[in-house]
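Journal club side-thread
Mid-discussion, someone asked how the predicted structure for our own chain would compare to the paper's figures. Pasting it here so we can look after the session.
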Amino acid sequence: MKSKQLIMMVALLVATLAGYLIFSPSDEPASSENAGVGHEPLAALEIARIAAITLTTSQGKETTSLRMEKVGGKWVVAQRGGYPADTDRIEGLIKTLMAMKILRRVPAGKSQLGRLRLSEPGAGETAATRIEFFAADGKSMKIVHLGKELSAPGGEGNTSAFGGGSNLPDRRFVMLDAKPASAAVVDQTFSNASADATDWINRTDFFDVKNVLTLAVDYSGTEATNSWELARENTATNWTLAAAREGEALDQNKLGSFGQPLQSPTFNDVLTGDAANLSTNATRITLGTEDYFTYILTLGDPNADGEFPVKLSVNADLPEKRVPAKDEKPEDKANLDTEWENQQSELKTRLALHQTFSAEHWTFLVPGSTLSGLLKKRTELMGEKPPLGPVGPVPLLPILPPSPPKQPEN
């Protein structure tokens, strides 16, 4: 009797197992990955351990990958030669990922990932944006796939798990560590998670030029005759033209923008490789300031959008000692010395900062609007030529009677 019961139990177990194999899809996600609504699946991400981040997107079968990494404790963009990255944007993305909440689980298997746009980059329209975090030893810490965006009516209010609706997206499908069982809808869209390097370079910190006293634009080749050089004694006086030619007279009304021509310059990108190399016949802009700084901008040919490749050189001839004023009182000397030393310290700090943008390291892609105010031809700086002089009335010649016809000789 016992043997019959044992045989029946074994048969029942085999039947159950066979039914599972027949009726359960091979790509069905495991229940161990399920998490409740409101759960923050990346809340425990160790932000201090993150040493590198890669973002990978795709257009059709073509993929674009971006890597940002910490060098010397600071974030840089690898695809831009290690140029400083936008730290606030990086930290913002990490914190948004850590704070995301699950709105609902999605019972999707591997075969359904394409419908959620959670396939690997390079899979065409079904591809996800892939984010991966690495520790300092190069080991992967976490992988996040960002899938299809959806709006609330097409998400929570729709019985379909695959989105819809017409409102602006406010949530997104997400998968963790490439495990379909972790697929879920979360309360963020991560709209700034692009793999475009220009979105991640630090454009907040850049050089600026103040209180210009000398300004020159040197054109090359056949344009050399359009070059010019201006100078002034201080920021309150008019400009004068160096090596003025006969008949040339500056129009001071056309020079109003030259006082602070690069007070807040900007750039669109950092060039690398062959694109960073400039012609030897490049245009040069030289600016000298009242603080003894000299800035030299070397410009390449503009691109189709009017942007210029630009290399920067910065130096300063700072005085080593303070020159006392003629009427300076002895009791004021100590305070004036301290004030001067503080000013020099600030100038040295400024010089060191501006030299980090020098041509030795970088070539910037600068919008034409930043430089257009300086790139004037020589004739564009001049006033209208005065007329040759007043033209008075033309005196009338006396009217003489016609001479009688000559008589023939006899």
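Post-session note: DSSP finds five helices and 17 strands in the chain.
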